[in-house]
Amino acid sequence: MAVVFYQYPKCGTCRKASKWFAEKNIEVNDIHIVENPPAKDELRSIYQKSGLELKKFFNTSGQKYRELGLKDKIKDMSEEEALDLLASDGMLIKRPLTIDGTQVTVGFKEEQFEKTWGK
User: Fold this and answer.
1) Is the distance from CB of 107 to CB of 7 less than 8 angstroms?
2) pLDDT in tens, the chain (119 residues)
3) 21, 50, 59, 81: which could form a disulfide with 104 (CB 3.0–4.6 Å)?
4) Can you state the angle between helices 110-117 and 12-23, rounded to 10 degrees?
5) Is the dihedral of CA 21, 33, 55, 71 positive or negative?
6) Quick check: 21 and 117 in contact, CB under 8 A?
7) How many domains does the chain have?
8) CATH code of residue 8
9) Distances from the Cα of 96 to the Cαs of 31, 72, 80, in angstroms?
């Protein structure tokens, strides 16, 4: 299965991850996370496969996150509310979001990419 790579072209971290994939000759299905954010059901599936806390999927350094005051609201949100919010705006999702059907990475750390995608 192809690696699905949700990214935002203006994001430096996304560009680093994209470069890493190119250097490793790993083909990715590149999806613009703002123009085509994952739907709520897809986010739920990704989140469940990841083994991560749902709050790890939020772009905590993003302007939208700060505008909405999510730092204080996230801990009291239900899973459904958090998934609705993430699905409503790709800028709220930590990026890049990379999946292959079984494995998930959120953000870009070269060591993590090497371990997950460098096989």
Assistant:
1) no
2) 589 999 999 999 999 999 999 999 999 999 999 999 999 999 999 999 999 999 999 999 999 999 999 999 999 999 999 999 999 999 999 999 999 989 999 999 999 999 999 97
3) 50
4) 40
5) positive
6) yes
7) 1
8) 3.40.30.10
9) 10, 24, 22
Range of the domain at 63: 3-117
What is the phi/psi pair of residue 77, to 5°?
A: -80, 145
Instruction: Count other Cβ atoms within 10 Å, centred on residue 50.
Output: 17
Q: What are phi and psi for residue 23, nearest 5 degrees?
A: -65, -30
